[in-house]
């Protein structure tokens, strides 16, 4: 079945460091891919998405490129801030059945220290 | 403001009781979803509804029930049959079900069994 695998956390960085959170997926067909962010005690917010191969999603300095050949959607940011501390979820939306259901990775906690 | 409202934010339940979590959206979205989140884990789909008066089981539907009598409302009942109900519950919606459509989340409800 379809699945998403993220790098284990927590990831601890100093402010202004470069961030990479790895995400790989297994899916039939061509799913859409998403990154969501969750701040403590809150719901999830969409960070960015890509709907086809080679698409690059970007928002608030974060970027991720849909790589079909490596089945990956790694999240990157050039210079993190303390306010970026949160849990980041990679997810895919199944194409088959047209249900729009999301399948999530287990989440990666990012801690940014001043 | 447009969005998804979940209530209550915190709920305590005694063993053997049923409880209902409310979810209301004013986004005019057709599709609505309920996810469960356990500490340190990703989200798992409980139920989803693609249109009014219709809903389907997700991956972990046992011990839960839903209704979709109105477009804007999708309440979740956690029954006494749910063996381990303590979790964070997230309601979500999208304009319509389909891969690539953005799913928006509410702020979540914490349910604790005492």
Protein architecture, described:
The complex is a heterodimer of chains A (114) and B (114). Chain A is built from no helices and twelve strands. Chain A has strands spanning 3-6, 11-14, 19-21, 23-26, 32-38, 44-50, 56-59, 62-65, 75-77, 86-93, 102-104, 108-113. In chain A, strands 2, 5, 6, 10, 11 and 12 form a six-stranded mixed β-sheet that branches. A four-stranded antiparallel β-sheet of chain A has the order 3-9-8-7, with no helix packed on it. In chain A, strand 7 and strand 8 form a beta hairpin. With 114 residues, chain B is an all-beta fold. In chain B, strands 2, 4, 5, 6, 9, 10 and 11 form a seven-stranded mixed β-sheet that branches. In chain B, strands 1-3-8-7 form a four-stranded antiparallel β-sheet, with no helix packed on it. Chain B starts with a strand and ends with a strand. The mean pLDDT of chain B is 92. Classes of the chains: A mainly beta (114), B mainly beta (114). The interface between A and B is medium-sized, with 26 and 30 residues.
Short synopsis of the structure:
The complex is a heterodimer of chains A (114) and B (114). With 114 residues, chain A is mostly beta strands.
Features:
heterodimer; A: 114 residues; mainly beta; six-stranded mixed β-sheet; 0% helix; B: mainly beta; four-stranded antiparallel β-sheet
